[in-house]
């Protein structure tokens, strides 16, 4: 059977939506063990992955990263908000353009969920 | 010709988005008679389907249910908000994990709309 | 290689989401030259395309239109808000039902992004 694939998209630095995304992903991984899960942040949401301000979420994010969840952070948005790669959690992957990645993921069979 | 299939996703108990979803579905059914339409609620949005608090919407929801719209409500979210199955409108179907259902629906050809 | 196709969906007259959508589209077109890009507005978001109130965005929207971006505006929503076709930017295409168009676009291979 084919692996389930899903991308969760965040674009505002809206804590309730972020927390909901993390609950969603946690529930999904409990339900479907062998899945490809991506959380992609562009726009203002890249601020949610800045180490100095997101301490509260660090442990949970690291736990999900260890379970195989991929965190993609948009480089266009980092530039727009003058955030450097070093400011972002190490386990995040910087992608050149978040929107392009969102289209590519959907084209390759990822379901899209906007929390 | 293949039936059109669409899932509307709600995850906050945000009345304007809920009302917009109901308008969307009503307009869609006027336009496309023979379609598969799902409204899936997870996260805080499960509260929108609690009988005691959603009286205002009961009639409209029942009408859409009679027209074949399926209402899926996430059991993880019901548990998180201490809501029991009996509190929820009878015409709703409780699904174990809303996110998993969202992925399955998209994998089986449902379009995704987030109002 | 197949063209990338994407529809951006707006349904509230929420300026930050609108601005983010325009930044998204601009970044996407820089990254992927030959793509099919649609911005579809239904619900309250049709107000964002009313000439008299959206002057601030006119130049940017025209620029994107010249680059081939299609702006689809829902006729059901125009009627609901008593807006006539003449009030809307000329470069917009009025579609009978925005939700139906969203489903059709996804069925024909468009990725969906909700800013």
Short description:
3 copies of one chain form a homotrimer. Chain A has 115 residues and is an alpha/beta fold.
Characterise this structure.
The structure is a homotrimer of 115-residue chains. Chain A is an alpha/beta fold. Chain A has a single domain (4-113), classed as 3-Layer(aba) Sandwich (Hypothetical Protein Ychn, Chain: A). Chain A contains four helices and five strands. Chain A has helices at 15-31, 55-66, 75-80, 98-107, and strands at 4-10, 35-41, 70-74, 92-95, 111-113. A five-stranded parallel sheet of chain A has the order 4-3-2-1-5, with helices on both faces. The first copy, chain A, is globular. Chains in contact: A-B, A-C, B-C. The B-C interface holds B 4-6, 16, 20, 23-25, 27-28, 30-32, 109, 111-115 and C 9, 11-12, 42-44, 76, 80, 96-100, 102-104, 106-107, 112, 114.
Number of strands of chain A: 5
- Contiguous low-pLDDT stretches of chain A (5 residues minimum) are none
Reading off the top of the CATH hierarchy, the class of chain A is best stated as Alpha Beta
Structural class of chain A: alpha/beta
**Helix content range of chain A:** 25-40%
